[in-house]
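Sample A.
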Amino acid sequence: MFADFITPKKEAGQGLPFWIKDLFMHRETIADKTDRAERRRLEEIARIKGKLIIAKLTLAQIDKDYNLPAGTAGNAVHEPHVAGERAIAAALKTRPHLLWRSRYFPDGQRRTPQPSENYRHARREAPSTQAAA
């Protein structure tokens, strides 16, 4: 009675059609550490912007309130900028190391130098030797 429901054993090499195997087995290996770092950076930015929206604050307003040049707070959200980070944290009534986990150590000390992943477009490494004039 139950024999009708038993499927025959699959022989070696059979199973999923070849085109499905190709989708999973031969993917381009683009997803490496830089992609994960970029994803973490974007999630951090989204979390901070969400907190600003909930607090009904704008980055331009933070610039004015903390006497920063126009665009400083906006740049600080995306790239490391000490004054902008401190102003945003103060406006949100928190500490910068709680907002930017990638820019600070857990004890609150700032990472120096900042990792290249913390910038919008990863900075290119400076050439080791420059041509002398």
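Sample B.
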Amino acid sequence: MAKRTKTALFKAQIPNAETPMDKTSRVVREMVNEEAEQRQIKNARLRKTRLERDAPTPSEACPPKPVKKR
């Protein structure tokens, strides 16, 4: 039986060169991710502004109840 060594069991994989299609896919994926991140930031900003605008002011929140005189 042959003696097993690390080099025989675990062969190092040679990294493949990046093909033009891989390069294009990588660049497009980066662009799409960047656009999505910018869109999320914009949506968060707009949501915060809308919630602040629609929030009731202290006078609207709890109007004083009329006091009944006896």
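B remarks: The chain has a mean pLDDT of 84. The chain is about 60% helix and 0% strand.
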